[in-house]
Amino acid sequence: MTDFLKRPSLTPIPIEQPLRGRLTLPGSKSITNRALLLAALAKGSSRLSGALKSADTHWMAEALRAMGVVVEEPDDSTFVVHSQGRLQTPSAPLFLGNAGTAMRFLTAALANSEGRVVVDGDEHMHKRPIEPLVRALRALGLDISASNGCPPVTIEGRGRLKGGRMEIDGGLSSQYVSALLMVAACAEGPCEVALLGSEIGARGYIDLTLAAMRAFGAEVEQVDEATWRVQPTGYQARDFAIEPDASAATYLWAAEALSGGAIDLGMPASEFTQPDARAKALIDSFPDMPALIDGAQMQDAIPTLAVLAAFNRTPVRFTGIANLRVKECDRIAALATELSRIRPGLAVEEGDDLLVAADPNLAGQHLPARIETYADHRIAMSFALAALKIDGLEILDPACVSKTYPGYWQALAQLGVRYR
Ligand SMILES: O=C(O)C1=C[C@@H](OP(=O)(O)O)[C@@H](O)[C@H](O)C1
Ligand SMILES: C=C(OP(=O)(O)O)C(=O)O
């Protein structure tokens, strides 16, 4: 696995046979980082099994350790968290790489802290907006600021949140809403978390948050479409099993569809609770994917679907994906640029839509191209799919997959994919 990650680029050799085999998916990033935080906010010991071990969960675990929580890693899919139920003020800035979940969830969790804390990330994180969450926390009386509306964030904690109404605009990221919901259970009194303004992108991530909170003992009810009431129960330590990562599964479902193979991931799409599992039905429709795909409820699956759409029989327009502009990179621009490197005009941006022209004749061609990946795991993983069918696609910076799926290249190799 490490060898693939050390290479400056990888050029998968197109497959000649359908991909077949059985793979174990990594654990869900979204659920692992929720469970790590909730376990840290609970007094006692929690064993998290089926967890993801990757850069995003590493940075969450490291930050919790820096705040006095004991996080053990007995094997490659388990965290054991021992906590006093509160986060101590760290002695140095917390570094969270480019882990959006860790950045947003911890910023809100630190609203209950004492003293000065700086939460920082890498140069990519410095471009990812956090101002709506900062504004919501400031409205609760917290002394908090973010330069240019992006990390680093500086928090001057004065103890516990009082409770009451919290208002948040989740238009740019549902993670702001999840972050407030999770800290709300640790306030002194009951809280109401209410959405302001724009509709949140992927509601499914809010559902994941509510499920994780309830699993760790929280009492939370939905008052109406845009309001949740959270009781000041705090959290209870427990053992918790994390389901496999649905976003990671989309690459393998797509590899199966593109190659006409059969890959056993050990769990049917219908059993996932994560939003991206919805992409499976669209992948199953390949090579007759619909002309219009609303990606709002399966955002992280769009790179997978867009690359697959390049091989579809007819063009596909992706709408509802404006948020993709503020992920690890501007994914709409990256997909248009890199697909067009394969064949000019293969994809174009139209406003915040992405139109993939579709060219079923791409398969089997020799079309050398160096694919930029913009330090974005999903751009690398999705273009690897195109490389299974097109000869000469060189994927730059293959190590960027370590954000959520360090074993990705190895998983493809296990299915018989070879690299130049
Ligand atoms: O809550 C979560 O776990 C996530 C929410 C989504 O982000 P946004 O809420 O920023 O759209 C998603 O893209 C991200 O990978 C994980
Ligand atoms: C957007 C993503 O990550 P995050 O926001 O958690 O950094 C992702 O994994 O595609």
UniProtKB/TrEMBL annotation:
Catalytic activity: 3-phosphoshikimate + phosphoenolpyruvate = 5-O-(1-carboxyvinyl)-3-phosphoshikimate + phosphate
Binding site for 3-phosphoshikimate: K29, S30, R34, S173, S174, Q175, D300, N323, K327
Enzyme Commission number, as recorded: 2.5.1.19
A Pfam family the protein falls into: EPSP_synthase
Binding positions for phosphoenolpyruvate per the UniProt entry: K29, G100, R128, Q175, R331, R378, K403
InterPro entries xrefs: Enolpyruvate_Tfrase_dom, Enolpyruvate_Tfrase_sf, EPSP_synthase, EPSP_synthase_CS, RNA3'P_cycl/enolpyr_Trfase_a/b
Subcellular location: Cytoplasm
Pathway: Metabolic intermediate biosynthesis; chorismate biosynthesis; chorismate from D-erythrose 4-phosphate and phosphoenolpyruvate: step 6/7
Top EC class for this record: transferase
Keywords: Amino-acid biosynthesis, Aromatic amino acid biosynthesis, Cytoplasm, Transferase
SUPFAM superfamilies linked: EPT/RTPC-like (SSF55205)
Top-level lineage group: Bacteria
Summary of the function given for this chain in its UniProt record: Catalyzes the transfer of the enolpyruvyl moiety of phosphoenolpyruvate (PEP) to the 5-hydroxyl of shikimate-3-phosphate (S3P) to produce enolpyruvyl shikimate-3-phosphate and inorganic phosphate.
The protein's assembly and partners: Monomer.
Family of the protein in this entry: Belongs to the EPSP synthase family.
Name of the protein in its database record: 3-phosphoshikimate 1-carboxyvinyltransferase
Source organism of this protein record: Stutzerimonas kirkiae
